[in-house]
Write the structure tokens for this entry.
Amino acid sequence: MAREPLRLLRATAQRAGTAAVSPLRRFRRTSHRLRRPSQTPSAAASPNRTPAPFDSTPFDPTALDPTAPTRPLVRAAGLAAVTVLGAWIGLLVVGSVHISVGPMDTRMALRPSLTGGTKINVAPLGALELNSHHAPLRLDVDVDRLDPIRSQALVDHPERLSGLQDEVASDITRGTLGLAVRSCVAVVFGATALGLAVYRRPRRALAAGGLALTLLTASGGAVYATWNPNSVLEPRYSGLLSSAPSVVGNARSIVTDFDVYQRELARLVTNVTQLYEATSTLPAYQPDPTTMRVLHISDVHLNPAAWHIVQSLVRQYKVNVIIDTGDTMDHGTSAENGFLDPVSDLGAPYVWVRGNHDSASTQRYLAKRKGAHVVDNGDVVTVAGLRIAGIGDPQFTPDRSAAAAGDAAEHSAGRQLAEAIRGRKATGAPVDIALAHNPIAARETDGTVPLALTGHVHHRRTEVLPSGTRLMTEGSTGGSGLRAVDDGTPDTVQASVLYLDRDTRRLQAWDEIDLGGLGLAKAEVSRHLPAENRPGATPTPTTP
């Protein structure tokens, strides 16, 4: 009997020890299975065991990785990269539509872009770009061909041109909607297909497609929020189109006769049709009795090619008067005077003011040329209905060995010009345009004249001075002459065509023309409007 309590105590201790060891044994068994997933203890003991079936589930390294909390960011970045790449491939492969716009067959497509905007390719004439929106998508419009049947119908029945604007607007609306739907399908299909190929999981592939649709929708929202319908009024041309200013109509129609986007875009299509009809010679700017055209050139610097460029621009734009703000010469010697002989044959009156590379001999020689008008010391000439005053540069510095009088001389000359302009205004004959070679002198005319033209710095710039005078500085129409060869960097040939209202003689618009200089091959025209002439601007009251 004495041994019975002892046996009970021993049995209780054994059960307690077994209970304490059992969790450790179970953990060891589990670890063993993880290390040998194809075997179990019973299977290992059987010589005729059947291998476990292959598990086709993709291996997830984060299951046993202690740093798993950082992996979601990597997976998200990978999904985003797959989505963007798939969407881009989808847009390239199937993200375009072919549509007829008036008499032309076009192809519209959306392309990824850092700057957005719209690019219209008119092969083989060139292209024009519109700053229409800011978004990661660019609208590309390729004019494939002009349909001969539809274009001939317009030629045979000109009365149809009156309804062409509405037809073009309808075609563009239809094409834009079709492109939007097709682009949605393209990005979703591309992202989903690439996601399925990469992940082999339908759920991840669908996530990529949904993310692509979200990104496209957000981009569409950015386009809508930044849409600029006025961009069609200031296109940037390249190629042969740069010599066809009539593509967007005349300056008067830009300001008053348009429904901002659809009507001007329809006008664009109409004029491109005319360009195709005249493949040998591009149409010139259509004459407008209410608009005067002033060609502003400067700093020719003995470049003989400049005269050919000026003659071409005079013909293309039907220029009424040419204004040259000096530095026609390089050294101002008498031997260079013969360079001025073509001035009489440029096709328009030529108004000139002396630059710091032009000598008194240069000025006297030019004053004798037919069609040339030299302004100096605040003198005023009336050419093509415009009253133009100017003053020659007070300094003659053909090379660096000559000592310059500095900016003080320029300020003094500018004040002299401003005083002369005030005197003309007091007589009831206000000056329309002031000329000076150096912008420093021209700034002194602020508040005395609506428009001041200068050169000298070989870089184009336009600004409105504090008292309201618009100062327009032209680049080098001679491409800086032989200076472009000195440092091996060719300068762009620059000129501008200014459109002024014939009644008010105020600036309505201007085209900035950039041509390739020595070794360059390019041609661009950019149209600009003063802020007061933009659609929706409130007119500034004027006092008589």
Notes: The chain is about 35% helix and 20% strand. The mean pLDDT is 76. The first helix runs from residue 4 to 35.
